[in-house]
């Protein structure tokens, strides 16, 4: 007998588990399908394991900045212990997530899901039917189609390395490339980061990216711009990375050149659902071309950045749609951060957007290196750019580069969302001297 569900969710990452749990809590009969690790990318091979590795690296870098400033320091990263610490965390994620879904009364199916018709899904030998379907299948690393591509490793491999190689080469210039470069360099590897043009992290302000590159270079990362890599060769010593005018030996090569959607193996062609490498094409209700099939999180070609908080937000929105809400999706400002050394974060109207409308927006650049928060930490690269809407006389966007950028951008996200004026900020008192109290002087 074919089991029938109110909703079937495909993919058990942050988006899929949020949608399934919420629909179940609202009384629906729900099934969720996962073909790999329960919990998906973020806790198994993304945000969380990365942040565990980053935590040790951040502690080391902060201590190193205070060497000869009153802290006796001879720190180094013990990669084997750090990896054991990471694995102790990640190993319980998949079984734990699976168990908690089952305990909540959600039917869990293990295997690859694909559509047989718009209401029928096959998982291995099992066939199930759904009134609504939520596609939440995420992204996978994009591989380069070059000679020797089989020698390329990915962020998933990096986050589970038994040993840190003596030298590594990272191809790419986005979030993943800059985060892995910082971790590897701090863990003692000789790191080369190769970008195919001269504008990595292009959604972030050029001034901040330049300072981040300067700091990584000072920490020993070699950043090579305008270099298209055409071939990877394996040799007796490791690998050779070859470009038009580039030829270098390295112990490991990682591709961090973007991610593509896991939607090409779902059988969407035969049910009339359009998609691309960016994900399932969706309307303002996150519906695909077939109205009862929704897509959320990384696998939706929606305007949201492909991040965990955005995935959860879209999942909760679609729960509302399935339960009868008909309002179009509206996104709040979504903060983004690169956990490199230092951190770089932004929220709201970006500096790049502001430069396109100079009548309306003013960009205020503040070098905070000599402020007590940063001076006491001996930080070398600290910069904040605020975007001010001149009509409203309010801060509507911010970008930060510093080791405090994660917390500072969260405060700024709140102030921007609620439209606080400089006067209102000055009437809110924060502990001094802290990252929060700096904001009063910024505004
Ligand atoms: C290295 C790295 C670091 C990151 N760091 C951060 C960070 O610091 N902060 C942040 O906000 N975001 C970060 N991200 C992004 C974040 O991980 C994603 O935005 C988030 O996981 C998206 O959730 P999702 O549920 O949409 O997709 P996913 O978490 O990718 O889950 C999709 C699930 O669907 C499953 N699946 C796919 N196809 C099928 C199928 N046909 N049948 C059954 N199951 C299927 C997959 O196995 C997977 O488990 C990072 C990503 C990476 C790669
Ligand atoms: N801290 C975070 O929130 C975080 C961390 C990691 C990943 N993520 C998510 O994962 C996504 C993917 O990250 P990513 O860094 O893989 O992709 P990305 O899209 O952010 O960056 C890819 C970079 O690779 C460059 N590139 C493309 N082809 C290249 C080539 N042949 N040689 C060299 N460089 C090339 C691109 O110009 C771009 O700069 C992010 O957009 C984000 O949504 C988020």
TrEMBL record:
Identification of the protein by name: NAD(P)/FAD-dependent oxidoreductase
Keywords, ordered alphabetically: FAD, Flavoprotein
Domain FAD/NAD(P)-binding stretches: 5-314
Family: Belongs to the class-I pyridine nucleotide-disulfide oxidoreductase family.
The keyword Lipoprotein is annotated on this UniProt entry: no
Family annotation (InterPro entries): FAD/NAD-bd_sf (IPR036188), FAD/NAD-binding_dom (IPR023753), FAD/NAD-linked_Rdtase_dimer_sf (IPR016156), Pyr_nuc-diS_OxRdtase (IPR001100), Pyr_nucl-diS_OxRdtase_dimer (IPR004099)
UniProt keyword Transmembrane present: no
Organism: Tetragenococcus solitarius
Domain Pyridine nucleotide-disulphide oxidoreductase dimerisation: 334-440
Pfam families, per the entry: Pyr_redox_2, Pyr_redox_dim
Cofactor(s) required for function per UniProt: FAD
């Amino acid at each position: 007998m074919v089991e029938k569900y109110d909703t079937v969710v495909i993919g058990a990452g942050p988006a899929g588990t949020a949608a399934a749990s919420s629909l179940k809590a609202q009384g629906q009969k729900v099934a969720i399908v996962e073909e790999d690790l329960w919990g998906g990318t973020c806790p198994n091979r993304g945000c969380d394991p990365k942040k565990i590795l980053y935590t040790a690296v951040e502690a080391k870098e902060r201590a190193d900045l205070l060497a000869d400033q009153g802290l006796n320091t001879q720190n180094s990263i013990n990669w084997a212990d750090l990896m054991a610490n990471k694995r102790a965390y990640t190993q319980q994620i998949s079984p734990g997530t699976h168990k908690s879904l089952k305990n909540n009364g959600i039917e869990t199916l293990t295997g690859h899901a694909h559509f047989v018709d718009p209401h029928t899904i096959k998982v291995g030998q099992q066939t199930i039917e759904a009134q609504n379907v939520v596609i939440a299948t995420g992204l996978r690393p994009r591989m380069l189609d070059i000679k020797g591509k089989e020698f390329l490793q990915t962020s998933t491999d990096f986050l589970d390395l038994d040993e840190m190689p003596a030298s590594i080469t990272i191809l790419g210039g986005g979030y993943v490339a800059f985060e892995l470069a910082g971790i590897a360099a701090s863990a003692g590897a000789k790191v080369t980061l190769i970008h195919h043009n001269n504008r990595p992290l292009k959604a972030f302000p050029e001034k901040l990216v330049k300072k981040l590159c300067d700091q990584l270079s000072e920490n020993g990362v070699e950043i090579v711009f305008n270099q298209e890599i055409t071939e990877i060769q394996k040799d007796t010593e490791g690998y050779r990375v070859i470009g038009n005018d580039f030829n270098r030996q390295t112990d490991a090569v990682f591709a961090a050149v973007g991610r593509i959607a896991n939607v090409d193996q779902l059988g969407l062609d035969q049910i009339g659902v359009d998609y691309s490498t960016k994900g399932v094409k969706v309307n303002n209700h996150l519906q695909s071309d077939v109205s009862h099939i929704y897509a959320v999180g990384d696998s939706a070609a929606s305007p949201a950045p492909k991040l965990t908080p955005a995935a959860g937000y879209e999942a909760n929105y679609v729960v509302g749609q399935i339960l009868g809400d008909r309002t179009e999706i509206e996104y709040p400002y979504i903060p983004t951060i690169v956990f490199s050394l230092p951190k770089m974060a932004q929220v709201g109207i970006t500096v790049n957007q502001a430069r396109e409308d100079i009548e309306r927006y003013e960009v205020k650049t503040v070098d905070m290196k000599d402020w007590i928060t940063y001076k006491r930490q001996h930080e070398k690269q600290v910069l904040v750019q605020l975007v001010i809407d001149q009509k409203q006389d309010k801060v509507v966007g911010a970008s930060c580069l510093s080791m405090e950028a994660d917390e500072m951008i969260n405060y700024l996200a709140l102030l921007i969302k609620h439209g606080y004026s400089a006067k209102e900020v000055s009437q809110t008192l924060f502990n001094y001297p802290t990252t929060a109290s700096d904001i009063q002087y910024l505004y």
